[in-house]
Amino acid sequence: MNRNEIWYIGIAVILSVLVFAATSNNAYKYPFSPENVIMQKWAEALGGFEASTRIDSLHLKKVVTLGEFKDTLEQWYSAKEVYRESWSIADVVNESIVFDRVSGQGWILDSNEQLQPLQGETLKETITGFYFDSFWHFPMSLSFQGKVQVLEKNEESTIISLAPHNGSTVVVYLDSKTNRPQKVQNSSYEPTWTTVYHNWRQVKGLWWPYQKTLIDQSGEAVANFQIVSMEANIKLQDDLFQLSEPSHESRIVFRDNAESTKIHLTRVGNQLFLQVRVNESELLLFGLDSGSATTYIDSRQIDNLGLNTQGSLKVRGYGEGFSNAAFIGDIALTLPDLTLHNIKAIAIDFQSMPVGLLGGDLFSQLRTTLDYENETLIIHNGVSIDKDSNSIELPLMIDRNLAYANARVTLGGKSIEGKFIIDTGAGFSLLLNTPFVESHKLLDYASAVTEPAFSVQGVGGKSASQIARAKEVSLGEIKFEDPIIYLSRDQAGGAASSKFAGFIGGELLRRLTLTFDYENQTLELKPNGNFHDPFYYDLGGMVLENPFRVSRVLTGSPADKAGIKKGDLILSVDQHPVYDTTIDELYLRYSGSNNIHAVEVLQGRERKVFHLSLQPLI
């Protein structure tokens, strides 16, 4: 299935790249340099240092237009260098962020009322947004902490790179005539997104862009932000900058207040599925996907489930494209002996099973133990449990309901560490993102078997990769020997991100029992009976797509030698018809090195039976 949402385009992206521009008093405090001269001209173009010092608090209210949605965004700034942002869209998305510049800490209260510390890319983008949306004017007397670099000067623009300390880097285009920002490019997402500034007005001696437009890599306007009111020097209550997490008692209900519940899982290949009721529906098949920050439901099931959707947006996983999606309001998800209330979900066309994906909305609220070997999920009701003496504890970094862990990859004499998303929804072992692959020149070690690039299906379409066999992958003290890994070739989407190294998927995770503890940011790992299973790449050498049609045959593979061709339709394996199975189950039927299987196909108009002698390809 591999439909992983690292952070969905539309809402989370728009919040993250909201409005960036910068000023500082570097020119006032630091020695002469070309950068400081530019920053001083920029400050003067916005009204100057003296005017900025007359502002000690600020409240902005903006109208956000996102497709057919039009709703509000509010921002507050205090001279104590504390910032709050609250926004809502269609009563489906409601989110607040508080950030304290002095301590460098912040918190986010998300739409599902989960309170989490700001970490990772969300923290970096908040730091940058705080500087470059508030420090234009308020106040310039606070020095910019970070790096400023002049990239280019031409007749139209002065182009500079600004990287606040611990923040994300942006590129600012200053108008050569006015010295005010024309646009800001944010490379937190691949490809780069751009904010363009319009409608400059002077208020209290300072110049403000009353309109800002977010543009995607294709040049399409994704969102528009319009200031509708601005209040300066108002009294801000101290509790405005405090976020408290609502009680979960009414949102998470265990039957009979049980200490835990054990749920049977169905495993297909390396992916796990469980039965879930949506509101009062019949039991439906959901994928258990820690790589999905939010809950997804197949848009083709919306009418059957009596659900209503609002608006439209585009989401992206590790595929290069986008998938059309829509918001779903509050729903209840019922698992055996447990109900999650007030879950906000996204509708998307899966094009195949399952009906939905459940991930971050479950893992972020409850301590969970995932037992691949026994195909069970244990969900703990806030009860502390003793750590297994045979397990190890790995630190996690939680960012917007996604869990990141450090891992080390040894390949071609190189031993490289990176930050990876723990992704139970992915069938592969390990996928390395394109920037990580390129920076370490890992394509030099790719197998010729998968040239041209092999496709992995995800949200947003196919992700192009090549295959290699690593010497070792390490998660803390746990070491996997000779695993097959995927080297991304994507130029867009999650697998093209430079913000993390890649994804750890089910082919590695199925060899472990895992306990996720988002609250304490730990992942407990214990090898299971599958730990020493060998790592095989597709032993048959043919790639299938629904409905069991061969989309590709690897040169020199058993399928190629047997005579199977691209376009053949698989009818049966070992006299078992394929119409009552899935592609994943079909792959399982002819797994196992050195086994021989009879594969019946329709080749053109002729039915043929080929005997495949399976063998490792890498």
Q: Which labels suit this protein?
A:
618 residues, 13-stranded antiparallel sheet, 10-stranded mixed sheet, 10 helices, 44 strands
In spatial order, strands of the major sheet run 6-5-4-3-2-1-13-12-11-10-9-8-7
Q: What is the mean predicted local confidence, pLDDT?
A: 81
Shape: globular
What's the helical proportion of residues? 10-25%
Characterize the biggest β-sheet. Answer: 13 strands, antiparallel
How far apart lie the N and C ends? 23 Å
- Count of individual beta strands: 44
Structural class of the secondary structure composition?
Answer: mainly beta
Question: Rg to the nearest angstrom?
Answer: 26 Å
What proportion of the residues form beta strands (DSSP E)? over 45%
Provide the low-confidence segments as ranges.
1-31, 137-141
Outline the secondary-structure elements.
Blueprint: H1 11-16, H2 26-29, H3 34-45, H4 49-52, E1 57-66, E2 69-78, E3 82-89, E4 93-100, E5 105-109, E6 115-117, H5 120-134, E7 146-153, E8 157-164, E9 170-175, E10 181-186, E11 193-203, E12 206-215, E13 221-232, E14 252-254, E15 260-264, E16 266-268, E17 271-278, E18 284-288, E19 295-298, E20 309-315, E21 323-335, E22 338-348, E23 356-358, H6 360-363, E24 367-371, E25 376-380, E26 392-395, E27 397-399, E28 402-411, E29 414-422, E30 430-432, H7 434-439, E31 454-458, E32 461-469, E33 472-475, E34 478-481, E35 484-488, E36 502-504, H8 506-509, E37 512-517, E38 522-527, E39 542-545, E40 549-553, H9 558-562, E41 569-573, E42 576-577, H10 583-589, E43 596-603, E44 606-613
Parallel strand pairs: 18-23, 19-22, 29-36, 30-35
Antiparallel strand pairs: 1-2, 1-13, 2-3, 3-4, 4-5, 5-6, 7-8, 8-9, 9-10, 10-11, 11-12, 12-13, 14-22, 15-25, 16-17, 17-18, 17-21, 19-23, 20-21, 21-22, 24-25, 24-37, 26-38, 27-28, 28-29, 28-33, 30-36, 31-32, 32-35, 33-34, 37-38, 39-40, 41-42, 41-43, 43-44
